[in-house]
Each structure stands twice: as C-alpha cells, then as structure tokens.
Write a sequence for this structure.
C-alpha cells in the first residue's frame, strides 16, 4: 500500500476529526428524534391509540437510525483507539447504563404491541421512556465531563488507569456543569422529537408536541447560554505547552499539556468558529417559531441546524483536544496523538468515501417511501405496532 | 492486576457473546429463507407464499430485535472490559468493526423497517429487493465480524510499533483475506442457515402434527429441508476446511481439541473418544481411527501434526526470544523518553525478535519485569500456553456429532419431500420438533471451542488474555455481571414467550389460499384459451 502516502498523516487526522463529528451529528439528527419521541411519549399521548401513533412515527426507522450510534462506536474504535479504550472503560457503569437503555428501547418498540394486555403495554411504555430519556441525559453528562476533564492517566505501557471506587466513579460524573449539559442534551432532543412528531402526526398529539417542544427549546437555549457562561468563568481549558508534531506517533505521553486559560480562548484564536453557537441559537429560535406557527418542515430543518450547531460548537471549542485528563494533563488525548496509524485512517477513509454516500442515498429513499403522516388507519393496518 | 478480575471479565464476555449468538444464527438463516419465500411469491404470485413470508417474517422480527440489541453490548464491551486489548490492537481490529457498520449493518437495519412497514408502500418487486437487502446485509455483517475474529487467531497484516506500544496495520488486504477468517465465515454462516432451516422444519412439523396450517407447513418444509440439507453438508465440509486452516495457523488449538499429547508419526490417528487427562498428558480409554487426523489436518500422508508436548517445547524458545525483544523494546523506549537517539542495535534486535514479544508478556503473570524471570517461571508460562483439553475435546465432539444428525434429518425430509409426495411419518415430525434447539447447542459449542481454544491469548501469540483486561475493580464487574444476568434473563423469557405465542397463533388469517389460487388459476386458463381447463394444476 503506497496509495495512502498521497494524503499526509496530518491531513488524515484532521479529516477524521471532521468525520467523527459528522457521525456524532448524524446520530443526534436521526436517532436523536427517536430518543426525543420516546421521552415525549408519556406527555403527548394519553390513549393507547395515541401512544401507538407516536410509536408508529419512529417504528420503521429507529433501527437504521441507531446504526449511526453503532457506526460511531466502531469508528471511534478504528480511528481513535485510545479514546475508545480510555473512555469506555473509564465511564464503565455509565456505559453499562447506556447499554441497558439502548437495549431496552428497541425491544420496547418492537414488543409493546405484541400483546393486547394493558399492563404489558404500560410496562413497555415506561421502558421506552426510560430507554429514550436516560441515554439522552447520559450523553449530555458525558460531554460535560469531557469539557471538565476526566480523571484518568496512562502508564508508560499506555494502559489507562481511572481513579476512584466503583460508585464514586459513577457519582463523580454527576458534577453540576455536567448535569447542566445533560439538561441541554435532553431538552435539545425533546425539541427535535417534537419537531418530528409535528411532521408525522395530527390532532391532539401534534398540539401537545408543539407545546412541549416550544418549552424544551426555551430550556435548551437557556441551558446552552448558561453553559457558555460557566465555561467562560469557571472552567479551565487545556493547552499544549510546546509545539506538537501533527504527524508524530500516536502516543499522548510524548506531548506536554497544561491546564490553563479558558476553552473559550479558542474563539479568539479561530474567530470563525462562532458560526457553530450562532447556528445553535438561531436554530432553536427558528424551531420555536416554527412550532408555534405550525410550519412543520421549517421547524424540523431549524431543529436540525440547532442540533448540528450545538454539537459542532463543543468539538470546535475543544479542538485539538478530544479527551482531556484532569489528574494527569499529559495523558490527555488529542487529534494529533490519539489516532490510528496512517494506513488505517486511509483505509477507513476509503471505506467512508465509498459507503457513506450510498448510506445517505438509501436512507433518504427509505424516508421518502415512508413519507407522510401516520394515521389511525396505518396503525390499525399494522396490528403489530 | 488481579486474576479474579480477568476471570470475571472473561465470564462476562463469554456470557454476553453466547447470549448474543442465541439470536444471530436465526437472523442469518431466516433472513435468507424469508427472502427465498418472497421470491417464490413474486415469481408465482400465489398468496400462500406471501402468507409464508409474512408469518416467518414476524418470527424473524421478534428474534432480530434482540440480535441487534445484544450486538451493541458486544461492540462496546471491548472498550469497557478489554481496554488494553482495545488500545493494543484497535488499529487493526477496529477497522473491520467499523466497516461492518458502514457496509453491512447500515443496510440491514435501514431496510428491515421497510420490510415490515413497506408492504403497501412498495411494489412487489421493490419489497422483494428490500427483503434481499436485509438478508445480504445480515450476511455481510457476519463477514466483517468474522474477519475481526479471525484476525485474533491468525494476526496477519500487522506489526508492533514500539513508539505507540500497539499493533499497527501493515496490509488491509491480508487482514481481509486472512484464511482463518474466510474459513470461519463460511462455517459460521452455514451454521446459521442450518439453525434457521431446522427451526422452520421443526415449527412446520408441529403444525402438521396438530393438523394446522397444512399448506403453509408443507411448503415451508419443502424449502427448509432443501436449504437445510445444502447448509448442513456445507457446514461439515467447511468445518473441515476450518480444521485444515487450524492445522496451519493454530497448532495448539488443534492439538488440544484432539488431545494429541505427543507428535505422532504421519498420518496421525483420530481419537474418536476417550478421557483426556491434562496432568498425565495422556488420554485414557481412547478409541483411535487410524490415518483420519493426518488426512483432515494436513491433507497428506506424510506431514506430521505437532503434539502438545512438542509445542510447549517450542514455546519455551519463543518465550526466551520474547524476553530479548522485551529488553530491546525497553531500551528503545527509554531512549525515546530521554530524547536520545534510538540505538540502532536495539532497534535491530527488537525487529529480529518482535514477533515473539507477546510470549514475554505471558511471564507478567508471575513477574513484573519479564527480564527477571527464572527458568521455572519460563517453564510455567510455557505450560500455560496449553488450553484446558478436556472441555475442548468433548465440546468439539458433541458439535461434530450434532452436525451429522442435521445432515440425516434434513436429508430424510428432503427425500420425503422430493420422492414421497410430501408425506412425513409422525416419528420424523416429532424428531424435527424435538431437534429445534440442537443447532443452537452446536453453534454455542462451536464458539466455545473457537474462543476457549485460543486461550491463554486474546490475539494468538501477541497479547495474553490476562493483560488485555481493563483496569477495573472486582466490584465493578460483579455489578455489571449481576445486571446483565438479570436483564438478559428477563429479556430471554419475554422473547421465548412471544415466540411461542406467535407460533401457537400461526399465520394471521388462515385463508384457504390454495382454493382461492386454484379458482383464479382456472379463471386465468379459461380467459386465455377460452375453454375450461382439463388438467388439474399439479399442486
């Protein structure tokens, strides 16, 4: 393989940073509304038929949407193995809870209507709610913790050691700032889910979704603004002390990192990244107005812009850091020292270049086939759902 | 690192992997069977085949969702419980997992929703294409997973990089076209086909015994027995291919499965049965079949298959070379850390011996720095390279015996279908019902042989299992183990109850499809030829 020399290691690392961002955003845009809809279920639907309408709006697509998450996991493993190794083992119990929720959710969607028994259905409704709301919250909490720094260090053999006992490791994740980012995440996805429901449903369900979605949008905007203020005033950023080889070996211990300044100094260095938070706020504003005006497509597009902007702003603010350590800053993982090898990044890029356009095309086709509002007639046609 | 932690991590991985594989083989096979049935429907336009597609499709759906859901656990557990493994081989091992998502799983999952919801939104051919895309996606999924898994037993196309302390890919093509992976893929996929075929066969037999849904059951048996016979034959033939591949790349696993304590003169005999005794390194009460082992393993009459004792001797040497590599690695790393130039001699010595570096890691169980290992410790580490023979020996034999029963069963049904007017004696129908769980047992035993037989390595010759685990506490593991056990048991009970419910219920409505079709068929003939049909339709 000589082909991979056509793209420099540095360029590949940068491209993969962008692609990972794209995968996370893709996950939030698609599976995000599934989670939002699941979290909204108890509040927008009062009767069994209404609940079935709500579930029917996501039932044909959640499986494909969830693959964004699975592909995201696989891509972290392939493109940033150190991040995969450190974060998944470090957030051990939190990961277990996310896993349990992500197993519970699909099973609830699929099994709920397999029996007519109301108790059976009520239990699965609860499972669907927990399985949707919990990961939405935990993903947000994880982002907050990443911004604050995570207590891990790497041994010279690059084995990661995460400090703390079993429960303390879990409880320490629930720092106030992390809870704030958790709230932003939940409200953002609830807004997104409400936008989806207003496209797919009619009548009382749609009206309730529009009301709750408006509220969620306001909470998301407030929380996001507050998060920015906290970052500006109370959270230290991270920085390299010296020059860093952008094509050096992927060994975080070769570079020195200190905790200093603010994450927000990135906006002084790269002023153009202000685009991301602006997208976040404008998107939310647009989505709220759209929900109130009943403009379904505009709402959903604005909601997408908001989700994209908010997630992108986190990545752009932290660049080049992807997982800073607050107990041993030198162990921090960055774009330049936590990637796969030159060849692996290239091979995976070729894979992405071939299959991502295909995926986008057939996903678009599937959505097109399924386009239109879910009616009671549809629900009754499919006794299964 | 405590041994308790590693054992618990292994237990959890084994449990969740075996559990995941309760659902995967049925997904693999049933997706193809359903697509075949729908193909017949589209070609003949007969409602009974649509009914069959929908009925088996419903059971497929109940099973599919748990396969998908428990698969997420598998992907995440590498990072959660095997973080050093993930760091050490992620550069190679992660790529096929990501490719699986990109190329296979995305397709499978995106179209499966359309399969269930698209009946009235798509043309007939459109829906058929969707069904096939789901089947192809599932099978490609298995391909990439087994490429990753095959690399663990035969780590080709990669080398160790001392600067990043991990294996890095040198050739993606070698990783993909790894012979161990290819042999595993075809073997595993055809095992999935057998599982689904016997499932369809058993359920249909039960309907016949109860006198229900006769049309659906007979046609399903016809499809399942033909498909099952072909798959059962290939699972055995390709399993033999797997054995041949093992003799080339996984000598210790092969010797352990066969309880070959000493190297025997070629061609070696096959031990049909006996009681392997690991302590004494001999097999009591053994019944041998001359020549067979040599033929399977080497496909020749004069090539020897090394026995366990000889392999342990070789591993002593490899551990010694591993220590030399480890020493050189430490010098390289020290120079790099101090910012000095890396002594070219150390680099050379390391490159000469780096393939055996993993063997030095085996000593970490006994001593922190492998360079300080005593002769006794080296010998103990070499003895550790022998997996436990007794369970492997029996798991393998039960699996193979079951494999042959599948050929007999599907073969018998195929013969009755083809030459005895689709009539089946009651005893055969009952056997088919009772035999439903057997492919699962064989598949789980197969995984046990594959993974337990690789011990003490996670990546053969490169990284010992004991070193691969995450730095967690025992209480972490106990919590998640309890959580998984409880959660998975509940899900299993629910899944089984739904399966039983939907099998008892049968197809949605039992229209007299054949009569309806015959009427239409007559009508078609009469309008076309303007005369009433003389011949009864063959069916």
């Amino acid at each position: 393989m000589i082909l991979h020399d056509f793209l420099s290691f540095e360029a590949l690392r940068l491209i993969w940073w962008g692609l990972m961002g794209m995968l996370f955003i893709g996950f939030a845009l698609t599976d995000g509304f599934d989670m939002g809809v699941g979290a909204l279920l108890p509040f927008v639907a009062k009767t069994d038929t209404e609940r079935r309408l709500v579930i029917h709006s996501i039932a044909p697509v959640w499986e494909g949407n969830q693959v964004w998450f699975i592909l995201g996991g696989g891509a972290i493993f392939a493109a940033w193995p150190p991040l995969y190794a450190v974060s998944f083992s470090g957030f051990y119990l939190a990961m277990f809870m996310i896993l349990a929720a992500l197993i519970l959710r699909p099973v609830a969607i699929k099994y709920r209507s397999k029996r007519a028994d109301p108790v059976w259905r009520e239990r699965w409704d609860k499972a669907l709610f927990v399985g949707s709301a919990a990961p939405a919250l935990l993903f947000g909490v994880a982002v907050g913790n990443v911004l604050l720094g995570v207590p891990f260090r790497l041994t010279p053999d690059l084995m990661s050691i995460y400090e703390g006992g079993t429960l303390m490791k879990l409880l320490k994740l629930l720092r106030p700032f992390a809870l704030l980012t958790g709230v932003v995440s939940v409200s953002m996805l609830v807004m997104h889910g409400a936008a989806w429901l207003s496209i797919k449903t009619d009548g009382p369900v749609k009206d309730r979704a529009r009301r709750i979605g408006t509220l969620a949008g306001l909470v998301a905007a407030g929380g996001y603004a507050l998060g920015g203020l906290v970052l500006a005033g109370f959270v230290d950023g991270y920085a390299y002390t010296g020059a860093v080889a952008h094509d050096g070996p992927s060994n975080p211990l070769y570079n020195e990192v200190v905790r200093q300044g603010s994450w927000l100094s990135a906006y002084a260095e790269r002023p153009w990244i202000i685009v991301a938070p602006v997208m976040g706020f404008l998107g939310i504003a647009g989505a709220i107005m759209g929900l109130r005006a009943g403009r379904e497509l505009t709402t959903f597009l604005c909601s997408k812009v908001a989700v994209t902007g908010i997630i992108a702003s986190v990545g752009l603010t932290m660049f080049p850091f992807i997982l800073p350590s607050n107990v041993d800053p030198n162990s921090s993982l960055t774009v330049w020292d936590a990637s796969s090898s030159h060849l692996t990044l290239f091979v995976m890029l070729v894979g992405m270049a071939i299959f991502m356009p295909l995926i986008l095309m057939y996903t678009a086709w599937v959505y097109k086939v399924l386009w239109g509002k879910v009616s009671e007639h549809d629900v009754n046609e499919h006794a299964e759902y | 690192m405590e041994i308790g932690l590693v054992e618990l991590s292994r237990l959890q991985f084994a449990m969740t992997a075996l559990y995941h594989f309760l659902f995967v083989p049925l997904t693999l096979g049933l997706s193809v069977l359903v697509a075949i049935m729908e193909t017949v429907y589209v070609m003949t336009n007969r409602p009974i085949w649509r009914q069959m597609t929908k009925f088996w499709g419903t059971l497929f759906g109940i099973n599919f969702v748990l396969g998908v859901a428990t698969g997420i656990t598998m992907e995440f557990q590498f990072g959660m419980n095997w973080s050093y493994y993930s760091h050490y081989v992620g550069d190679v091992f992660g790529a096929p997992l990501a490719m699986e998502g990109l190329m296979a799983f995305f397709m499978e999952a995106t179209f499966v929703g359309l399969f269930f919801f698209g009946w009235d939104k798509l043309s007939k051919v459109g829906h058929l294409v969707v069904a096939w895309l789901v089947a192809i996606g599932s099978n490609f999924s298995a391909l990439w997973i087994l490429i990753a898994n095959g690399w663990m037993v035969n780590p080709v196309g990669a080398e160790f990089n001392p600067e990043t302390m991990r294996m890095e890919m040198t050739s993606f093509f070698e990783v993909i076209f790894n012979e161990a992976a290819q042999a595993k893929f075809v073997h595993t996929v055809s095992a999935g086909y057998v599982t689904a075929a016997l499932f369809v066969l058993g359920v249909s037999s039960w309907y016949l015994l109860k006198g229900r849904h006769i049309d659906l059951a007979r046609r399903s048996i016809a499809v399942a027995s033909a498909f099952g016979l072909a798959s059962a034959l290939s699972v055995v033939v390709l399993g033999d291919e797997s054995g041949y591949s093992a003799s080339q790349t996984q000598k210790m696993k092969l010797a352990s499965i066969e309880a070959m304590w000493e190297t025997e003169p070629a061609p070696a005999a096959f031990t049909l049965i006996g009681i392997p005794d690991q302590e004494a390194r001999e097999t009591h009460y053994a019944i041998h079949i001359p020549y067979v082992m040599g033929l399977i393993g080497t496909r020749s009459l004069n090539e020897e298959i090394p026995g366990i004792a000889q392999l342990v001797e070789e591993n002593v040497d490899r551990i010694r070379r591993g220590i030399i590599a480890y020493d050189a690695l430490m010098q390289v790393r020290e120079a790099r850390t101090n910012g000095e130039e890396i002594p070219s001699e150390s680099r050379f010595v390391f490159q000469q011996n780096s393939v055996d570096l993993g063997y030095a890691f085996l000593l970490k169980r006994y001593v922190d720095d492998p360079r300080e290992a005593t002769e006794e410790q080296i010998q103990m580490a070499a003895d550790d390279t022998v997996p436990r023979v007794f369970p492997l020996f029996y798991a393998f034999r039960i699996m193979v015996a079951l494999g042959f029963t599948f050929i007999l069963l599907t073969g018998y049904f195929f013969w009755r279908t083809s030459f005895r007017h689709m009539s089946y004696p009651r005893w055969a129908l009952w056997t088919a019902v009772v035999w439903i769980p057997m492919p699962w047992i064989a598949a789980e035993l197969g995984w046990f042989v594959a993974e337990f037989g690789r011990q003490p390595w996670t990546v053969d010759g490169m990284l010992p299992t004991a070193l691969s685990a995450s730095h967690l506490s025992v209480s972490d593991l106990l919590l998640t183990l309890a959580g998984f056990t409880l959660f998975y048991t509940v899900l299993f009970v629910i899944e089984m109850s739904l399966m039983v419910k939907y099998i008892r219920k049968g197809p949605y409505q039992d229209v007299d499809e054949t009569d309806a079709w015959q009427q239409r068929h007559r009508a078609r003939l009469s309008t076309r030829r303007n005369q009433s049909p003389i011949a009864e339709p063959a069916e």
